[in-house]
Design brief:
Subcellular location (chain B): Cell membrane
Protein name (chain B): Carbohydrate ABC transporter permease
Structural class of chain A: mainly alpha
Number of helices of chain B: 14
Helix content of chain B: over 70%
CATH architecture of one domain in chain B: Orthogonal Bundle
Number of domains of chain A: 1
Radius of gyration of chain A: 27 Å
Oligomer: heterodimer
CATH superfamily of chain A: MetI-like
Low-confidence stretches of chain A: 314-318
CATH class of one domain in chain B: Mainly Alpha
Order of helices and strands of chain A: HHHEEHHHHHHHHHH
Distance between the termini of chain B: 56 Å
Largest sheet of chain A: 2 strands, antiparallel
Family (chain B): Belongs to the binding-protein-dependent transport system permease family.
Shape of chain A: flat
Number of helices of chain A: 13
Mean pLDDT of chain A: 85
CATH class of chain A: Mainly Alpha
CATH topology of one domain in chain B: MetI-like fold
Strand order of the largest sheet of chain A: 1-2
Pfam families (chain B): BPD_transp_1
Main location (chain B): membrane
Distance between the termini of chain A: 59 Å
Chain lengths: 318, 302
């Protein structure tokens, strides 16, 4: 080499410098944005939850776990937690059941044709239509369903009921019904997503599995429960975790759709709504952050539990 | 005659799905029932949306009247004009287009830059930074809500589009980095190495070699981010308060018409506004439905 050893070392050194310079220049901006707007707020939230900060005083006062002990006596908080519990149980169950039913029809309902399992006629069309609500903003869907659920005959649903001679139902003003009405909107919007998700899982099943089963005389119910279900169990679990996490949100829908934002009489309130209201309507920032921490631990507990269950099932299967 | 008969039989066979294999005979109740179920759900999905479009052409008494399911008596576009002008849907729409296009573009730029470096360069702290990004996926946004508001306010960015854009980028990074890191790892080394041998700089290798190779992954995540940011509701109502209505985004504008509609009671205007929010998504969805479906389910099929 014409530069000699020293030049080579310098060249290597400068190549290395360029490499680190490049790594730094590519990571710096995303990392700064992420730390400033995501990591630092999360870290601050835990501290703010231990203060009585109301936004006016420059220095929030440290009050230990007082916010959390107050939370334990807060009826609205417990109502919200109960609603999350109900959503967590019912929403994934209903959504997954409907989505599994439709994706089975769309992928395998046509039986075997020319050796391959096919969906019913028009399955592509149905899949496209079913998925569409997923693309709409939850806030838009909320406003839309407000017109559908209106309590008198002017609501679309009650108009239909009147047509068949049934008295109008207070979909959103009946305390026993309101949360279910809101859950129905979530199901309406998300079924298509899970149909597509499960369809992907079903199309990954080798076709000779079905052929062998069909030759052995397995009917549709056997095909579904003994073959399809176990083979896409992983995908179903992914869907379950997604819907479980969604059950801890529901903010936009409850905020837009429910009577009095979380009403009537707190019958539909959820923690995200309470956090938002406590912070930005009542300026109780410390207390709102304590709710945020509670929500965080609820979500994490759910995620950890479902991961554990998943792992156990995997061991059983193998 | 024979020919038509056999073809009729063939059609009947195709209609009743797997009639050939089953001993039950050519008529299959399962097929009919499954079609009924599928059509019922289709009506449930399409019905409310179609009804919104129709209601936007009705008059107030027609909507509030006793026959909410009737067709409009005459098609009037007046409500669309009112929604666009008086309810400022046009303004909100343009605001949203501006905010989402800028923030998605920069989300993709920064996200792919970070993901590329994390996927293909070994250096001290690589894993730590990767996990820092990915950890953002497991936190509920509501935990950060209060401090986030004050961080943005202290930077003087509250009630500005720049503030919303920066926050959108930051909150889109965890998934973008998570997905694209995995994607960049799957790309072959040889092309990039050859380019570097030929004297291309790291930056040039990235923009001219790696980005084109990563196109399928980038498109999926771009769609994912556009939809996610377009439909965002919580962050706008926290970061763009009531005082700056001229800066509002579409979701917040629609939700607000709803709450004020009770007083002014311009129902056709509300449904025209809703239709205006739905139609662009419908068009985009019809054109890109394959990419949208794969983009949105991308997270689950890692």
């Amino acid at each position: 080499m014409r530069q000699g050893d020293g030049g080579l070392a310098a060249g290597l050194f400068s190549a290395r410098l360029r490499r680190y310079g490049f790594i730094f220049s590519f990571l710096a901006i995303p990392l700064i944005l992420y730390v400033v707007f995501v990591i630092s707020p999360y870290a601050q939230a835990f501290y703010i939850s231990l203060t009585n900060w109301r936004g006016i005083s420059a220095n929030p006062q440290f009050i230990g776990f007082e916010n959390f002990t107050r939370l334990l006596d807060d009826d609205v908080f417990w109502a919200a937690v109960r609603h999350h519990g109900l959503l967590l149980l019912a929403m994934p169950l209903i959504t997954i059941a409907i989505a599994l039913f439709f994706s089975f029809l769309l992928n395998l309902g046509g039986g075997s044709r020319g050796g391959a399992m096919t969906g019913v006629w028009g399955s592509k069309f149905y899949r496209v239509v079913y998925f569409f609500p997923q693309v709409l903003a939850v806030a838009v869907v909320g406003v839309l369903f407000q017109a559908i659920y209106r309590p008198d005959n002017t609501g679309v649903l009650n108009g239909l009921l009147k047509w068949i001679g049934v008295d109008p139902v207070g979909w959103l003003i009946n305390t026993d019904l309101a949360l279910w009405s809101i859950m129905a909107v979530v199901v309406w919007q998300s079924v298509g997503f899970y149909v597509v998700l499960f369809s992907a899982g079903m199309s990954a099943i080798p076709r000779d599995v079905f052929e062998a089963a069909a030759l052995d005389g397995a009917g549709r119910f056997r095909l579904f429960f003994s073959i399809t279900l176990p083979l896409i169990w992983d995908t179903i679990q992914v869907g379950w975790v997604y819907l479980g996490i969604a059950a801890f949100d529901c903010f936009a829908l409850v905020q837009v759709l429910s009577v009095d934002r979380g009403g009537p009489d707190n019958a539909t309130t959820v923690l995200p709504l309470e956090i938002w209201r406590t912070a930005f309507t009542f300026s109780k920032f410390g207390y709102a952050s304590a709710m945020g921490v509670a929500l965080f631990f609820l979500t994490i507990t759910f995620a950890a539990l479902s991961l554990r269950v998943t792992r156990r099932e995997r061991i059983e299967l193998s | 005659m024979m020919a038509t008969q056999t073809s009729a039989v063939r059609v009947a066979k195709a209609d009743s799905t797997d009639a050939g294999r089953r001993p039950r005979g050519p008529v299959n109740p399962f097929g009919a029932l499954s079609h009924i179920a599928l059509i019922v759900w289709t009506i449930l999905v399409v019905g409310p949306i179609l009804w919104t479009f129709l209601a936007s052409f009705k008059t107030n008494p027609e909507i509030v009247g006793d026959a909410p399911l009737a067709l409009p008596q005459s098609f009037s576009w007046a409500s669309w004009g009112r929604a666009w002008e008086k309810a400022h849907i046009g303004r909100y729409m343009l605001n949203t287009i501006f905010v989402v296009s800028v923030s998605t573009a920069f989300t993709m730029l920064f996200g792919s830059m970070a993901a590329y470096v994390l996927a293909r360069y070994k250096f001290f702290g690589n894993r730590a930074i990767y996990y820092l990004f990915v950890s953002g996926l497991s936190f509920p946004v509501f935990l950060a809500l209060v401090p986030l508001f004050f961080v943005v306010r202290n930077l003087g960015l509250i009630d500005t589009h720049l503030g919303v854009i920066l926050v959108y980028i930051a909150y889109s990074l965890p998934f973008t980095v998570f997905f694209l890191t995995a994607f960049f790892k799957t790309l072959p080394n040889s092309v990039a190495e050859a380019a570097m041998m030929d004297g291309a700089s790291h930056t040039r290798t990235f923009f001219q070699i790696m980005v084109p190779m990563a196109k399928p992954g980038l498109i999926s995540i771009t769609i994912f981010n556009i939809l996610g940011q377009w439909n965002q509701y919580l962050l706008p109502i926290v970061l763009l308060s009531g005082g700056v209505e001229d800066k509002w985004l579409i979701t917040q504008g629609i939700a607000n018409i709803n709450t004020t509609a009770g007083y002014e009671a311009d129902w056709p205007g509300l449904f025209a506004a809703l239709s205006m929010a739905i139609i662009p998504m419908l068009i985009v969805y019809i054109i890109f439905q394959r990419q949208i479906q794969s983009g949105l389910t991308a997270g689950a099929v890692k």
